[in-house]
Design a protein that fits this description.
Strand content: under 5%
Order of helices and strands: HH
Distance between the termini: 118 Å
Helix content: over 70%
Shape: rod-shaped
Mean pLDDT: 88
Number of strands: 0
Largest sheet: none
Low-confidence stretches: none
């Protein structure tokens, strides 16, 4: 706070007071200008921070979307690989079932031949060996 200590002594004192008043008005105007600059700077800082925050959020959203896409692609690849491996094992299992079935028939045929007479067995043996 500025305190003005003046003793009034007629017209001369009014001029002194007028000079001091003008000086104070100039200082007031100057301080108001500085305040305006501070307010502008304050708003600029606030605006910059909001803009930067918005950019950060956008970048993180892009990153999150990228990660979601990568997760989906990886899971899809996993499921495709699982399906291929299951199909391959299914085919091998079917092939193994055919071999087991063929072996079972061969064993059954041989057991029946062994029950038959020795002559029939000797006749059928070469055919059975081929199977």
């Amino acid at each position: 706070m500025i305190v003005v200590d003046l003793k009034l002594k007629g017209n001369a004192d009014r001029e002194d007071l007028n000079t001091v008043l003008k000086s104070l008005q100039v200082k007031l105007e100057h301080n108001e200008n500085i305040r305006g600059e501070f307010e502008n700077t304050f708003q600029h800082i606030k605006s910059q921070a909001e803009h930067t925050e918005h950019q950060i959020k956008q970048q993180f959203e892009k990153l999150h979307q990228f990660l979601r896409d990568e997760e989906e692609a990886t899971i899809t690849a996993l499921r495709e690989e699982e399906e291929q491996r299951k199909q391959m094992m299914k085919e091998k299992l079917e092939e193994m079932n055919r071999h087991i079935s063929a072996l079972s028939h061969t064993i059954k045929d041989m057991e029946e031949m062994m029950k038959a007479s020795d002559v029939c067995f000797l006749k059928e043996f070469p055919v059975s060996m081929e199977r």
